[in-house]
């Protein structure tokens, strides 16, 4: 296998005084290096930790495609993708700091234990210097804490909970994806323009952390513009049939249903809601409406026609017309034959951002990378001008408000962009109450 | 499930000289109170665990097969921790025949207890683990007292129901106590009254045993090989040996005989004037404490406790580990745990890129063909391999992995008639 | 009042799904005594029969539409189903839309075949093996089956809508004299409930009124004696297995419009179906059906926000809580037979 001599141990072995048993009593995290898994050979290993089994397996597969594409582009193969449109010109297509990019993959199973086991094996066995990926906030938060402890960088994949860069933020972790607060802030004005400011909302909320932060964000944004929240009911994660939650909605006097669900939950609750005739219903003299705060195009397919006309928000969509997005879609589409998902986009961007930060820092040392990423302003990666805020390691950029398309022309063409909410409208102070608690701490090199 | 012992036939590389049903009385005690065969088994386990860094890293770093090396701290720790979990489960299931389908709840309770100790008291692992065992034991006493009023499938479903309730509540309503979906984590502002809230460099301290950090490692380079000796692993390994030794003593004790009696015929036991319930409850609590110990160790190696540790699939996993290795045998559950964790961690990491690396020597057409054939079984398809392996083992090795070992050793020892008959007549344990 | 009627209705269709799945399982598990962890997978395969049929019906050839472009700017490829050519566009479209009901006919032979193959090829050898071995082998089989489905259909849920004739809701409230739109019940759920009732009735009638059923019931009670009478009970048990698979599969086919099928849906329902069977009592078909409806209705009530407000989290645990209470109050579930799977 060509990869094996690239692992940390392989590299160390060549550096170590070869031959018979010499023990170096050093710490697991540091070994003979200045920081965890310092790449000393001609290559550097990144760890792509995505769900490959379980309900998010397809999303994980798309993330992995994006990472493989990013590795190609970083190593100067293919058409270079968004490296060409990226405002920072540090990346030269010769790997990172001249080292060829290699990667290892793992399966998070969308379980925090399995995700951490997989990440630890990448760090301990394969010598990964950065871990990235994931398709749920639980996993992101768990792996982020692990990377902080082990002294490697974590570039979060798809994670939307406020907590990832709120109460569970870590100095070694970075998130490009948007969050619940931003969804609420972006959606509220559009909802007001379309549905008016005199509405009564009924929330169904997935009963776990992400659901809580999303409900809180949507409630506070919509209540600020005059909506009233009639009720908020929590639904079990393992629920398969939402009929008993949906049926009482019409009787409650509400005229908007907000589904704080993601993935399979969202598909089923939305399908059920449409089945119960909520789309055609009238309440308080108005048309009854449904809102899905976070859309996933891959998953929305499962709901079929039920998504038509339903508002939601998304981090990125392939139909964006800016040059960077177009370049990425072309690059990805040529390689795989279909357009990338928002999960693929955020993962690709995270890989590029990491590589760029290393180039600019001139080192793989986590603290140097953190410094290079903190407060970094960039453009040309598909979301317009973006800031990686130093205080909480959250990206601030435009947010897309989308709506289920009435007449899709293909199986990918499910959502249409209604509005690109400018970044100012979704920016919040680092000490915003929805993000209270927790501290970044200081960066960890693992030494 | 009473006919288990008869139908699984032979098993266990142990006590061949002693018919298992002979009772505890009048046994010759050898070293450490163990019969010779048991002592040799213990020595084997000691050797396996202590030399694991060598045994699990058979391939040099530069070879293509290094992908199959499992000798890195995280996986070695997992082998041992799940081994403890399975040993404990086997004390209940293997001896009494009570199939608990909710054992992961005790593991979860143990993990939460340990992490709370780290948050409130300090980073020393010993008190954390003691509290884990205690909490899990008390919890098992409560659940066992209720569930053991039923037997057979009714008992299984009762334990399952309790565990599922624990999972559902921990994931949602009890979020302030359990951290919910994201799990219970350490934070910089935890009190840690007997330790420090944060280290000098502004990070969260790591679990340690009187200052020896669980993540500390020493590397040994020999030729192309690299071996890692990890403090946390050896701590877990010593705990495993103690657990294993305790399990042998339980298996061979009069108490163990009572538990077997519960399995083979509760009716007869009652007629002889013995009440099986206290024995079953004791086994349940002991086995719950083993699970709590495993949970505490897990949190000590990696200070995070998540609710999905208590999901029914986690309970199902330990059942599968035990059956896969050989239910009722001493070493079987440990082997089963090792195999499942190995598949989960090693197979799932093989991707098409690595396959291309392996088969690069082949002509292009052949290479692509071979990769197309293998690809569905590795990486994202590792579940498929797992499922096929379960079926293959149970179809071809009715006694689990231990039977495979026995068949091999029988083949090695030659076809001496008395050997075969001897081990056939042996009681399954 | 209307809220309660509403939840009873919801409970009925949840319950009919539980009852159908549990019915199939109890034929295998409650009566043949085989712990079949692959039962959820059979349910899942049933649902994918509908997906497969819909794929077959909408099998297409590709034409290039020069007037439109795809996401890469190339000319758009348009798929035209062969059905449009055979039956005309309108009739072809209707046939594709009716894929789910049509899949009932499609699924029955497939499911019986799978069930019989499973019994002959695998389960047959495990009747006398310990339950532990049965768990391991059927769990392995379940994983293999679902991985095969994942390999061909992906991991994401696949929409399988009901025919347009069944979209929309039936206004029960108007029927009972409440205000309009107070008690709405989707047509498809009504169909599901009626369908479940028919299947359950048919299975009972089959076992009760046919000679075959009589022999099988005798075989469940005392396999050996029936064998001694010179009756080939093994063959009948094989047919039973096929029947159970068909019931599970049909439950899955018709569930598609309510729950978009995905490859792990079997595992989602597996534990639940075991709970239902055991709460109903081992060896009792009426028990399984009763438990299915009971748990379905209680689950619906527990999800009312008035209830959740009083006892937070009750909707998370209601099924398990009820299971515990019933099993503690009644040692063998609702209608269990003594001595079945009790040791």
Describe the structure.
The complex is a heterotrimer of chains A (447), B (429) and C (343). With 447 residues, chain A is an alpha/beta fold. Helix content of chain A is 34%, strand content 19%. Chain A has a seven-stranded mixed sheet with strand order 8-7-9-12-13-17-18, with helices on both faces. A five-stranded parallel sheet of chain A has the order 3-2-4-5-6, sandwiched between helices. In chain A, helix 11 packs across helix 12. The longest helix of chain A is centred in the last third of the chain and has 20 residues. Chain B has 429 residues and is mainly alpha-helical. In chain B, strands 1-6 form a two-stranded antiparallel ribbon. In chain B, strands 2-3 form a two-stranded antiparallel sheet. A two-stranded antiparallel sheet of chain B has the order 4-5. Chain B has a domain of 273 residues: Orthogonal Bundle (ABC transporter involved in vitamin B12 uptake, BtuC). Chain C has one domain: ABC transporter involved in vitamin B12 uptake, BtuC, CATH 1.10.3470. In chain C, strands 1-2 form a two-stranded antiparallel sheet. A two-stranded antiparallel ribbon of chain C has the order 3-4. The radius of gyration of chain C is 22 Å and the shape is globular. The chains are: A alpha/beta (447), B mainly alpha (429), C mainly alpha (343). At the B-C interface, helix 1, helix 7, helix 13 and helix 17 of B face helix 6, helix 12 and helix 15 of C.
The first-to-last residue Cα distance of chain A is 30 Å
Question: Secondary-structure element sequence of chain C?
Answer: HHEEHHHHEHEHHHHHHHH
Distance between the termini of chain C: 45 Å
How much strand content do the residues of chain A show?
15-25%
Task: Quickly count the helices of chain A.
Answer: 13
Beta-strand share of residues of chain C: 5-15%
> Which fold name corresponds to the CATH topology of chain C?
ABC transporter involved in vitamin B12 uptake, BtuC
Low-pLDDT stretches of chain A are 1-31
Helix content of chain A: 25-40%
CATH topology of the largest domain in chain A: Rossmann fold
Please state the structural category of chain C: mainly alpha
Instruction: Identify the CATH homologous superfamily of the largest domain in chain A.
Output: Response regulator
Q: How many β-strand runs of chain C?
A: 4
**Main interface by residue count:** A-B, 73 and 66 residues
Protein name (chain C): Amino acid/amide ABC transporter membrane protein 1, HAAT family
Main location (chain C): membrane
Transmembrane segments (chain C): 16-35, 42-64, 95-114, 190-216, 237-258, 270-295, 307-329
GO molecular function (chain C): transmembrane transporter activity
């Amino acid at each position: 296998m060509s990869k094996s001599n690239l692992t940390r141990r392989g590299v160390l072995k060549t550096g170590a005084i070869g031959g018979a048993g010499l023990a170096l009593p050093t710490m697991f995290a540091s070994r003979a290096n200045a920081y965890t898994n310092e790449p000393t050979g001609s290559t550097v290993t990144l760890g792509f930790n995505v769900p490959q089994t379980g309900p998010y397996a397809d999303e994980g597969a798309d993330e992995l495609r994006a990472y493989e594409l990013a590795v190609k582009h970083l190593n100067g193969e293919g058409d270079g993708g968004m490296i060409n449109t990226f405002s920072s010109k540090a990346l030269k297509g010769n790997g990172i700091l001249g080292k060829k990019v290699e990667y290892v993959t793992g399966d998070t199973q969308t379980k925090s234990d399995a995700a951490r086991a997989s990440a630890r094996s990448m760090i301990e066995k394969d010598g990964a210097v950065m871990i990235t990926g994931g398709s749920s906030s639980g996993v992101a938060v768990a792996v982020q804490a692990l990377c902080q402890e082990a002294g490697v960088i974590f570039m979060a994949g798809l994670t939307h909970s406020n907590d990832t860069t709120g109460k569970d933020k870590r100095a070694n972790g970075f998130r490009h994806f948007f969050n619940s607060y931003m969804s609420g802030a972006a959606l509220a004005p559009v909802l007001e323009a379309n549905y008016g400011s005199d509405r009564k909302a009924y929330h169904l909320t997935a009963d776990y952390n992400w659901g809580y932060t999303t409900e809180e964000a949507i409630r506070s944004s919509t209540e600020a513009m005059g909506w009233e929240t009639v009720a908020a009911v929590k639904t079990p994660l393992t629920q398969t049939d939402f009929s008993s939650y949906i049926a009482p909605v019409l009787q409650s006097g509400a005229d908007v249903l907000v589904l704080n669900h993601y993935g399979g939950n969202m598909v089923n609750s939305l399908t059920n809601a449409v089945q119960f005739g909520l789309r055609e219903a009238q309440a308080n003299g108005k048309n009854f409406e449904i809102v899905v705060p976070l859309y996933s195009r891959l998953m929305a397919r499962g709901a079929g026609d039920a998504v038509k006309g339903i508002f939601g928000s998304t981090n990125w969509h392939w139909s964006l017309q800016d040059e960077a997005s177009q370049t990425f879609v072309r690059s990805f589409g040529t390689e795989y034959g279909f357009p990338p998902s928002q999960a693929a986009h955020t993962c690709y961007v995270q890989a590029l951002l990491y590589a760029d930060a290393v180039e600019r820092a001139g080192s793989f040392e986590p603290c140097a990378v953190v410094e290079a990423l903190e407060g970094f302003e960039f453009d040309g990666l598909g979301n317009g001008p973006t800031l990686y805020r130093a205080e909480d390691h959250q990206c601030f950029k435009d947010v897309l408000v989308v709506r289920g398309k009435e007449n899709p022309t293909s199986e990918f063409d499910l959502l249409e962009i209604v509005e690109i909410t400018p970044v100012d409208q979704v920016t919040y102070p680092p000490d915003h109450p929805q993000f209270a608690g927790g501290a970044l701490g200081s960066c960890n090199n693992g030494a | 499930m009473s006919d288990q012992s008869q139908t699984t036939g032979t098993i266990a590389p142990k006590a061949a000289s002693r018919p298992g049903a002979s009772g505890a009385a009048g046994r010759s005690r050898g070293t450490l109170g163990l019969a010779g065969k048991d002592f040799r088994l213990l020595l084997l386990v000691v050797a396996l665990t202590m030399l694991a860094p060598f045994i699990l890293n058979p391939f040099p770093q530069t070879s293509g097969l290094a992908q199959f090396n499992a000798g890195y701290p995280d996986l070695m720790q997992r082998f041992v921790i799940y081994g403890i979990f399975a040993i404990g489960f086997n004390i209940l299931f293997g001896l009494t025949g009570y199939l608990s389908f909710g054992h992961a709840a005790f593991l979860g309770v143990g993990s939460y207890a340990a992490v709370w100790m780290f948050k409130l008291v300090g980073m020393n692992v010993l008190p954390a683990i003691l509290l884990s065992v205690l909490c899990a034991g008390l919890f098992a006493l409560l659940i066992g007292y209720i569930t053991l009023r039923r037997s057979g499938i009714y008992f299984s479903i009762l334990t399952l129901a309790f565990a599922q309730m624990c999972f559902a509540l921990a994931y949602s309503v009890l979020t302030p106590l359990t951290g919910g979906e994201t799990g219970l984590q350490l934070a910089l502002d935890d009190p840690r009254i007997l330790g420090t809230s944060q280290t000098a460099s502004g990070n969260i301290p790591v679990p340690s045993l009187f200052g020896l950090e669980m993540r500390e490692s020493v590397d040994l380079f020999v030729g192309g090989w690299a071996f890692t000796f990890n403090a946390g692993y050896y701590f877990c390994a010593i705990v495993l040996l103690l657990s294993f030794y305790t399990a042998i003593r339980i298996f061979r004790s009069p108490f163990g005989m009572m538990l077997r009696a519960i399995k083979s015929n509760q009716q007869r036991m009652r007629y002889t004037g013995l009440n099986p319930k206290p024995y079953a409850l004791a086994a349940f609590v002991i086995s719950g404490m083993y699970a709590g110990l495993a949970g505490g160790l897990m949190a000590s190696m990696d200070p995070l406790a998540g609710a999905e540790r208590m999901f029914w699939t986690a309970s199902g996993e330990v059942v599968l580990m035990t059956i896969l290795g050989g239910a009722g045998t001493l070493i079987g559950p440990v082997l089963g745990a090792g195999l499942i964790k190995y598949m989960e961690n090693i197979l799932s990491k093989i991707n098409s890129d690595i396959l291309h690396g392996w088969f690069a020597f082949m002509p292009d057409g052949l290479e692509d063909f071979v990769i197309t054939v293998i690809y569905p079984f590795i990486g994202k398809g590792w579940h498929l391999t797992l499922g096929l392996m379960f079926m293959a083992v149970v179809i071809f090795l009715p006694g689990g992995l231990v039977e495979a070992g026995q068949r091999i050793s029988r083949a090695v020892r030659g076809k001496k008639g008395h050997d075969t008959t001897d081990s056939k007549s042996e009681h399954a344990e | 009042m209307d809220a309660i009627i509403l939840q009873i209705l919801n409970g009925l269709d949840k319950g009919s799904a539980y009852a159908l799945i549990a019915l199939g399982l109890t034929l295998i598990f409650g009566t043949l005594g085989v712990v079949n962890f692959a039962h959820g997978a059979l349910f899942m395969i049933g649902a994918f029969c509908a997906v497969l049929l819909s794929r077959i019906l909408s099998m297409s050839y590709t034409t290039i539409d020069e007037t439109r472009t795809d996401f890469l700017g190339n000319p758009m490829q348009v798929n035209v189903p062969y059905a449009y050519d055979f039956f005309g566009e309108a009739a072809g479209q209707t046939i594709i839309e009716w894929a789910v009901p049509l899949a009932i006919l499609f699924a029955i032979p497939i499911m019986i075949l799978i069930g019989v193959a499973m019994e002959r090829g695998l389960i047959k050898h495990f009747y006398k093996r310990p339950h532990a071995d049965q768990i391991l082998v059927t769990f392995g089989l379940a994983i293999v089956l679902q991985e095969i489905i994942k390999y061909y259909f992906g991991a994401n849920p696949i929409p399988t809508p009901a025919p347009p004739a069944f979209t929309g809701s039936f206004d029960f409230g108007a029927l009972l004299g409440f205000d309009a739109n107070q008690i709405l019940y989707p047509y498809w759920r009504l169909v599901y409930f009626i369908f479940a009732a028919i299947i359950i009735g048919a299975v009972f009638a089959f076992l009760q009124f046919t000679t075959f059923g009589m022999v099988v019931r005798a075989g469940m009670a005392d396999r050996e004696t029936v064998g001694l009478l010179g009756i080939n009970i093994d063959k009948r048990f094989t047919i039973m297995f096929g029947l159970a698979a068909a019931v599970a599969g049909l439950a899955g086919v018709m569930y598609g419009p309510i729950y978009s099928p995905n490859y792990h849906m079997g595992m989602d329902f597996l534990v639940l179906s075991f709970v239902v069977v055991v709460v109903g009592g081992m060896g009792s078909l009426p028990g399984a059906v009763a438990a299915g409806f009971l748990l379905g209705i209680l689950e619906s009530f527990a999800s009312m926000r008035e209830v959740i407000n009083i006892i937070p989290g009750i909707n998370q645990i209601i099924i398990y809580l009820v299971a515990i209470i019933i099993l503690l109050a009644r040692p063998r579930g609702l209608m269990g037979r003594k001595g079945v799977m009790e040791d």
